[in-house]
Amino acid sequence: MPQSFQFLTGASGSGKTTILRLILQSLKPTRGMISIFGQDTAQLDKDGLTALRRRMGIVFQDFRLLDHLTIYENVALPFKIRGRMESSYRAEVIELLKWIGLGDLIDAKPPVLSGGEKQRTSIARALVSQPELLLADEPTGNLDPVLAGRLLRLFVELNRSGTAILIATHDIGLMEQIKGARRLVLQNHHLQVEG
Fold it and tell me: Which of 48, 61, 72, 80 sits most deeply, having the most CB atoms within 10 A of its CB?
């Protein structure tokens, strides 16, 4: 999966989000094995799982923002959790927020944001630590076509620089914009690879 760009698709309720949760290890499989970055996840202890998750970024469908933190603080949270000094990441976080169209809302808190603004904040948080693997659950669902296109271009840039991308979506138009991306289709509890 290194440097791959893939779409995970299927009907509503087919299990797209479940697959992402299994990869992220927020859900454990009832049978079978999951290998991520060459590691059998069943063999990882708590520290190993933490290290594994730090190599991934996730854009949740329900945003998972902390309402008591500003947009800036939500996006900077991965750095703060790792104990980095704010001076080492502040400019980077602000630049990303400006690029994603939230530069004027840095001090705003999630309850006052629109759905699209919350989505972009969630995306910025997933991208800020430059993950090896980016998992995105319907990342353009709350965005207008212009912002959706901009986000897709960002995902392509990330992919070119070495980040593997897995986007769960049912948006055919979105998938058709990325030529050569593989489609993983969930149908009748089976995963089929197309392309």
Answer: 72
CB 2 within 8 A of CB 163: no
- pLDDT tens figures, 152-166: 888 898 899 899 999
Query: Alpha-carbon distance 24 to 21, whole Å?
Result: 5
Architecture of the domain defined by 5-194: 3-Layer(aba) Sandwich (3.40)
Helix, strand, coil shares, percent, the chain, to 5: 45, 20, 40
Per-residue pLDDT tens over the stretch 104-163: 999 999 999 998 899 889 989 999 988 999 999 998 887 788 878 888 888 898 899 899
Find where tokens 């708590």 sit. 46
CA 119 to chain centre: 11
Q: CB neighbours of 92 closer than 8 A, spacing ≥ 6?
A: 128
Residue with tokens 């000094």: 85
Boundaries of every domain in the chain:
5-194
Strand boundaries in 69-189, DSSP class E: 133-137, 164-168, 182-187
The model carries a pTM of: 0.88
